[in-house]
Amino acid sequence: MTTRPLSRPLLAAATCAVMAVGLTSATATAEGPLAAPVDGAAGIGDPYWPLDGNGGIDVTSYEIRNSYAFGKGRLAGRTRVELTATSDLRSFSLDFLLDVSKVTVDGAAAGFEKTDDGHELRITPAEPLIAGTDHAVVVSYVDRPATHSYAGEMNWLASRREVVTMNEPHMAPWWFPSNDHPQDKAIVDVKIRVPNGREVISNGELKGRRVGRKSTTWHWRADEPMVPYLAFFAAGDFTIAQGVHQGLPWLVAVSQGLSAADEAASMRLMRKTPKVVAGLEKDLGDYPFSVVGGLTTSLGVGFALENQTRPTYPAVGSSYTSLVVHEIAHQWFGDDVAVQQWRDIWLNEGFATFMEWRWSEQHGGRSGAQILDDYYDNVEAGSDFWQVVVADPGAAKVFDDAIYGRGAMTLQALRNRVGNRDFWRILRSWLREQDGGNGATEEFEALATRISGEDLTGFFAAWLRTASKPAATADNGLA
Length: 479
Prior knowledge:
- Its EC number is 3.4.11.2.
- This is Aminopeptidase N.
- Its cofactor is Zn(2+).
- Keywords: Hydrolase, Metal-binding, Metalloprotease, Protease, Signal, Zinc.
- Residues 4-33 have low confidence and may be disordered.
- α2 (273-284) packs across α3 (321-332), α3 (321-332) packs across α4 and α6 (401-418) crosses α7.
- The protein has helices spanning 260-270, 273-284, 321-332, 346-362, 368-378, 401-418, 420-433, 441-452, 457-464, and strands at 38-39, 57-69, 74-85, 89-95, 100-105, 108-109, 111-114, 120-124, 134-143, 157-158, 163-164, 187-195, 199-202, 205-211, 215-221, 233-236, 238-245, 248-255, 292-296, 312-313, 338-339, 438-439.
- The chain is built from nine helices and 22 strands.
- The chain is of the alpha+beta class.
- The chain has an eight-stranded mixed β-sheet with strand order 6-5-9-3-2-12-15-14, with no helix packed on it. A four-stranded mixed β-sheet has the order 1-4-8-7, with no helix packed on it. Strands 10-11-16-13 form a four-stranded antiparallel β-sheet, with no helix packed on it.
- The chain has three domains: 1-235, Immunoglobulin-like (Sandwich); 237-325, Zincin-like, CATH 3.30.2010; 342-464, Neutral Protease Domain 2 (Neutral Protease, domain 2, Orthogonal Bundle), CATH 1.10.390.10.
- It starts with 37 loop residues before the first strand and ends in a 15-residue tail after the last helix.
């Protein structure tokens, strides 16, 4: 996600009163029956947003089948959730805000209710789910997403001619039921029906279109599992361009709701995407997904977001290559390797910002070392910038400027401290060892220590865990 220098209000911290509680799976033995099934926890255990995700389930795939009525702002649909029970469950939850009309589990009608906060869809199957077994949950719904909020966020972004589902840390519950936390990646297959003449763009590859008398259904599918907030669709009037660059298929789209000049400038920017991928691959290794692209919306979003395989952007003109660099870098840092918990967000934003610095030094701009020095010299010790604890900023500051800037400073300072060779070994090893999974700050610190052979305890304490400006010492990568 990029919020600089574009403006975006800070996301409000969650004020949930009930903390998620981990539940122990009942076990069967040869001598006796299963212990009593339990109710899966309402959250996965992230202290920043205790209701995010759910206990007792692991989702394999989402098949989302929605239709959207632009004039009424109404979303109707059905999502099939393939999941594995990780505990013996009497009931379990999915994160979903919309009104639900029917739920089935393995084809049988299931009981369901929405919790008082409206975020949890509690499902009670006809028969308990046994740990280790696979199940198909189908949820049917119809509602107006713009009427719903969660954790202080009203994330539905739409006009009478365009809609785009882009936001972080939450977006999925406004348009499909999910296990909404980065720890649970799943395959996402999307079909969206809209009036004839409108386009739909989503993640992955366009599998086909079915044109009816009045409406068209667009089918998109991503080949690699993704975090729920990275799934998106946009519908409206779009100009689409596509091709193949060095064997990688790309597809970009720009809203026709922009002025002619802005549409042309945005398309020029979007067309830079495949070359940005090729440039980043020189440092980071192979691009982690099978397709790439981007979309520019005409809606007043005010930020860009790293939706997997196809980031979304506001209209910023054709020269803002650094924005594309940031969001494409996220395909490695944030999408392929997702955070373990939201407190680890600097592993996404600091790393993507650092790759902007790296792009600058490779394309005639300031070097990473110069940018680090400029930050350090020009931000006073009393600035709020230094008061954020980067490794645990709190929910209200997960997208604070310090997460981006001080996060990137940490990486350049590490580069200064351990040397260029070991630094790039650390980054590439991080991507290789965490490939397709999740990463925590402590894991990155351990990796850096192992590869460099240095004691980096004080270094990381100064940059990531201290609410003050690091001393200008060689140990801190500053002298």
